[in-house]
Amino acid sequence: MILYEMKCGEGHTFDVWFRNADACDSQVAAGEVACAVCGDRQVAKAPMAPRIARGRGARVEEAPPPVPVAPAPEVTPTAVAEAAAQGPAAVMSLLREMRRQVESNATHVGDRFAEEARKIHYGETEAKAIYGETTDEEAAELEDEGVTFTRIPWVPKHDG
User: Fold this and answer.
1) In the structure, what pLDDT confidence band is assigned to residue 56 with cuts at 50, 70 and 90?
2) Which long-range contacts (C-beta less than 8 Å, at least 24 apart) are formed by 84-89?
3) Alpha carbon separation from 54 to 8, 60, 124, 149 (Å, rounded)
4) C-alpha torsion angle, residues 9, 11, 14, 17 (rounded to 10)
5) What does the alpha-carbon distance between residue 51 and residue 55 come to, in Å, rounded to a whole number?
6) How many helices (H) and strands (E) does the chain have?
7) Is 123 left (phi over 0), alpha (psi -120 to 50) or beta?
8) CA distance 7 to 42
9) What's the whole-number average pLDDT of the chain?
10) Where are the chain's structural domains?
11) Which of the two residues, 73 and 34, has the higher pLDDT score?
């Protein structure tokens, strides 16, 4: 899945998850994506700055941890768009449910995520659902090796 920052005709910006770039383009063209603030369906991708990878010791706290695709709850772009149309609170609720499901159905491996994901990918250990943290550099290496995983926004469990 890929996260795009979108912008509506009123100038509001909001984030939307899509299966891939083609899904984004087709859903936007069909008017299936609505502004999370005002509901405007005239939206487009907003300019986004690339994330700069930092060294292993300088991990950014707000960076979402990678999670294998298998245990992730079925949060479709349509479900996210529907939540976005209901407002930011509905999106946060959806993301909290995703976190709850990941924590309930997967093993936390901490900063050993890349190592454990490789072991599973290459059949060195039993396949199981895992989640944890990794650097942008490690994530890029996993992608290059064909290891299937995704990043999700890791929101707080509660408001406050």
Assistant:
1) low
2) 84/14, 84/16, 84/33, 84/34, 84/35, 84/36, 85/34, 85/36, 85/39, 87/36, 87/37, 88/36, 88/37
3) 32, 8, 29, 20
4) 40
5) 13
6) 5, 7
7) left
8) 9
9) 78
10) 1-49+76-104, 60-71+106-160
11) 34
pTM of the model as a whole: 0.49
Name the more confident of 9 and 153.
9
> How many beta carbons lie within 10 A of that of residue 42, not counting itself?
13
Q: Are 17 and 2 in contact (CB under 8 A)?
A: yes
Tell me the residue type at 110.
Answer: G
Strands 130-132 and 107-110, how do they pair? parallel
CA distance 105 to 88: 26
> From the centroid of its chain, how far is CA 141?
18
